[in-house]
């Protein structure tokens, strides 16, 4: 029986090492905010031009802080879902330079998990 000995390091190709173009920069925040309907969510723009979206049941929150959330180091987006008596909620945040496409994808996944009781 022949035993193959693994070589140290990793194998790759020249193609895999080529430079890529990555999406960077904040993009269009409407990609995120356009996912919400008036029927289920309330949108408020405050005096700093920060945008706050709350579900009518109060358990979902999205904040967009174009100039950075006060008291943080560049936090631009906050998504939070309040937990229940038995299960903890969760919170995620993205900085001001995170592409809106990425935040929109995260929001879409959160909204896809919502179920009416």
Total strands: the figure is 5
What structural class do helix, strand and pairing data support?
Answer: alpha+beta
Name the quaternary structure: single chain
Average pLDDT for all residues = 91
How many DSSP H or I helices?
3
Sheet having the most strands = 5 strands, antiparallel
Envelope shape: extended
Question: Quick gist of this model?
Answer:
The chain is α+β, with helices and mostly antiparallel strands and 117 residues long.
Question: Can you characterise this structure?
Answer:
The chain is an alpha+beta fold. The longest helix has 14 residues.
Descriptive labels:
single chain, 117 residues, alpha+beta, 5-stranded antiparallel β-sheet, 19% helix, extended
Topology:
Layout: H1 14-17, H2 30-33, E1 41-45, E2 51-55, E3 60-64, E4 75-81, E5 90-95, H3 100-113
Antiparallel strand pairs: 1-2, 2-3, 3-4, 4-5
């Amino acid at each position: 029986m022949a035993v193959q000995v693994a070589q140290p390091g990793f194998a790759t190709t020249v193609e895999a090492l080529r430079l890529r173009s990555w999406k960077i920069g904040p993009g269009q925040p409407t990609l995120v905010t356009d996912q919400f309907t008036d029927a289920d969510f309330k949108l408020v723009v405050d005096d700093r031009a920060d945008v706050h979206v709350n579900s009518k049941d109060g358990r979902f929150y999205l904040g967009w802080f174009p100039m950075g959330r006060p008291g943080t180091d560049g936090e631009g987006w906050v998504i939070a879902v309040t937990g229940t008596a038995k299960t903890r909620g969760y919170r995620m945040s993205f900085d001001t330079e995170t592409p809106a496409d990425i935040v929109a994808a995260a929001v879409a996944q959160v909204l896809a998990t919502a179920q009416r009781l």
